[in-house]
Structures are given as structure tokens and as C-alpha cells.
Amino acid sequence: VPSAPRSSAAGMSVVEHVREMAAAGLHSNVRLLSGLLLTMSGNNPELFSPSQKYQLLVYHADSLFHDKEYRNAVSKYTMALQQKKALSKTSKVRPSTGNAASTPQSQCLPSEIEVKYKMAECYTMLKQDKDAIAILDGIPSRQRTPKINMMLANLYKKAGQERSSVTSYKEVLRQCPLALDAILGLLSLSVKGAEVASMTINIIQSIPNLDWLSVWIKAYAFVHTGDNTRAINTICSLEKKSLLRDNVDLLGSLADLYFRAGDNKNSILKFEQAQMLDPYLIKGMDVYGYLLAREGRLEDVENLGCRLFNISDQHAEPWVVSGCHSFYSKRYSRALYLGAKAIQLNSNSVQALLLKGAALRNMGRVQEAIIHFREAIRLAPCRLDCYEGLIECYLASSSIREAMVMANNVYKTLGANAQTLTLLATVCLEDPVTQEKAKTLLDKALTQRPDYIKAVVKKAELLSREQKYEDGIALLRNALANQSDCVLHRILGDFLVAVNEYQEAMDQYSIALSLDPNDQKSLEGMQKMEKEESPTDATQEEDVDDMEGSGEEGDLEGSDSEAAQWADQEQWFGMQ
Questions:
Q1: 459 CB contacts (<8 Å, ≥6 apart)?
Q2: Number of other CB atoms surrounding residue 138 within 10 Å
Q3: Are 182 and 219 a contacting pair, CB within 8 Å?
Q4: Dihedral sign from CA coordinates of 367, 372, 375, 380
Q5: Region(s) of the chain under CATH 1.25.40.10
Q6: How far apart are CA 149 and CA 145, in angstroms?
Q7: pTM for the whole thing?
Q8: What is the pLDDT of residues 7-39, one digit of tens each?
Q9: Of 269, 408, 475, 492, which residue is 20 to 30 A from 313 by alpha carbon distance?
């Protein structure tokens, strides 16, 4: 290397070579060369000009960033900014002498704003959101690029600074009126759909084939106000438009909305449709896995988990899906571990928080579970299952008053629909004083949606207490006319036993088990009847019990103590 590598007419300086390699994406080469040149510069400060040192530090930091060494990158970016400060001072003191070489030099200097953005990216990767906000906040608003405003908006939103977040999202839209994620950000912060639409109206009118956008905004405005029915209808109307038919994002949103509305059957259908269109789909697959697990389709859940791990183990979804498999196989400590891993990858994953909360609750750690459900509610205030989880925790710890307050709040904020009525009724059933109220609420819910499974189950529970078995049988037969559900068949079996209809009860338990082979209560109902029918075979029955205990599922999942060792070794499920 020549002693003074300044640019000569004959060839490029060594710093320009570094810049060219950086532009060409040769990050590992840049890292090695810039590291050596920075050492030379340290040993002989006269070797490079301040602007060359600044460039070398930035290119070196960029290569560290590319290698995911974020803390090291931040320290080099900080040094680069200090160097830039010194550079600005010297250039102010000594005005340019009209030297032609100085202009291209300053033009090709890496942007200071870009350096600050990269630093903020490092901080978010290191989960130091406050530092990320501080560095971006320091950029004067007029110099903020759309990506800086977008990052700031997301960070403010996460930190609960809603007003600042709204301002930043609006700034993104002012600069880029088709930034759809910024639109979703505004809608999620309760900005009215009409106001958001007005910010895009000019572009909709000036570009052909964009007339769907105002309907799209309307649809997601309904999503964020929790009006599931109108959101579903609006997205369906978009989906029917020939130009937007078979759009994976719209199908995923529909699946999620059906799930929120408690229509699991349609939700699964839409997820399957989306998945067939895009076999690499990850978004929403955690909800899909949860729905399959709830239906007892554990083999499908396991296959889905393995498939998702092959697509990416850096997203929360595969971990949540595997966690659902463990949870519904009653391996709670492993479910807890997988849920925690998912939250580590994405702290905004509602499904991961719900999984971890449910695992903690079932392990008797109710207070910790409550924290997780509250965080889920903060992230998804329109999702009823977040409130259901919290209310179950209150009931588990006999805090009926808190449960009642929460259920009433949900009823007021999300409106009187079959789901909120049933949730309130569930709490009322826990208190002897409010049994009649529970009955009225359930009747209202079933008038609105006669097929809503949770309401049917709770009404059956009430009729069972009152020993009105014939009414219960009629209710269940009616509910099963248009759908098949393991729990409903099992409860019908219990009611039929109560009125001595043993043969048909046996049939109902069989159907329940064919839908969910792991349904313990159906097995117990069946075995109880068999014992009553043939007491002489009691010993034989015990063998069957043993076999059930060591079924395939048991071998597959291992024991809970094994799961604890697992967590220590960090041998994550699904990673080969």
C-alpha cells in the first residue's frame, strides 16, 4: 500500500476500493480490508484524511451489521459519527478552496442519516428500543426519510406513545401515499377510516385499477374497531372482485376474522385455501395450528410445525404451533418453553403470549399467567380469546368479582354478540346468585347464533345442574344437526346415560373419540359404561387403561420431567 493513499488521476485510492466492494456486496472482504486499514490509521493518524476515516468506519460497521454483530456495529457507527463531527468542524473553519476534488469527495460520503438509521436497527435487534427512539428522535423532522418515520412510528406504538406514533405514520403517508402498512398502523391506533382514506384519495383517483383501495381501508377500519361481521362482509366483497381473487393476504385476514368471530370451521377452510395458494405462508399459521390442536388433530399440528420449521425457525409461528401440540398433549412445561422461545423471536406475537399464559395457568402459576394475558389484551384489544384467558385465570384463583368486572367491560366495549354474552354467562354460572342471569344471557346468545358451540356447552351445563336431561338432549341434537363437534357428542353421551339410553350414549362417545382420539372424558364415559355392563371384565379394563396411558402420543412427547431437561439443553423441538 502506498504511504499516502490519496486519490491520484492514475488510479483509485484504497478507500475507494473499499467503497466499491461495499457497493458490490462483498461484505466479508470489506470487513477484513477495512479492519486492517483502520489499524494502520490508528498507528499513523496522518495516513488517511478525516473523511476517509469516516468512510472506513462506516463501511466496517456495515460489514459487522451484515454479520449480525450488532453491538460491535453500534460502537463503530458511534465512532464514525464522532469522526463526522470533527470533519464538519474542520470544513467550517477551512472553507473549500475551490478545489474540484473536494466536491465529489463530499458527494460520495455515506449519509449521516443512514448511519443513524442503521444504529437504530442495531438497537432494535438488541431490544434496546429506547436507544433506537433516542437516535432517530435526534434527526430533525425535515431530514427524516420515509423509512425513518416508519421505524419511529412502530417504535412509538410499541412504547405506548400513541400521539407521536400517529404523527409519524401520517408523515410516511404524506411522503408515500400507498404505504399500506402505515395505513394499518393508523387504523390500529383508532384513527378514523374516513380520515385515513382522505390521505390517499388523490392517488386513488389518479391511478387506474386502484378503486379497491378505499374498500380495503374500510375493511381494515372495521377489523380494528372489532366489527368482525362487517369486516368479513367487506373483505368478501373485495375477494369476489376478479382482480383480487385468491389474494393470500385477504384470505389470511378472512381466516383470522372468522376465528375472532368464533366460526372455527370457516376459519380453518380459509387458512387451508391460503396455504394451498402459498405453500411458504407463515403469517397466521400459529392461529391455524391452534385451531387444529383444539379439534384434536394433533398429527396435522405436528406436520404443520415441521413444515414451518423448514420454512423458517426465525419466526414465532413454528414455535407456537409446536407449543400447541405440546399443550394439547398435556406437556405443559414444554409448551411453556416453546411459547417463551416464540416471544423471544417476536414480542408482539399474541398467540405466543396466549400459549405461554395458558401453560402457566395449567401449571398453577396463575399470577404469571395473568401478566401474559394482560399483555395480549394490550396488543389485541379486539380479540375475545385474550379476555377469555384472563377471565379463566380469575376464576381459577376464585376472583369472581374481578372476572365479573372484566366480563362486563368486554360486553360493553365489544358489544352484545353471542360471544360476549356467553363469556358473561360463563362468569355468572360460577356464582349461585347469578344463575338466572346466566340462563337469560345464554338464551339471548343462542337466539343470535343457535350453532355457537361455547353457548351450547354452557347451556347444557346449566340444564345438567337442573337435571333437565330431556331439554339438554333436544338442545344438543339441534346443535349437532349442522355440525359435528367432539365436546357436543360427548355431552350428549353423558345426558343419554342419565336417561338410561346406554346404546346410543355409547354411539355418541364413539363419534366423539373418532373426532378427537385424545378426548379423555369420552374415554372415561365409555369405560364407565363398559364396567357397569360387565363387572366381571373389570380386570381386563385395567389393561386397556394402561394401554391408553402409553399411547403413541405419550411416546412421541416424552414426560414433563423430560421436557424440563429439554429446556435446559435448549434442544428445540422441530429443529433437526
A1: 442, 443, 446, 475
A2: 8
A3: no
A4: negative
A5: 206-281, 282-378+385-397, 454-532
A6: 6
A7: 0.78
A8: 443 467 899 999 999 999 999 999 999 999 999
A9: 269
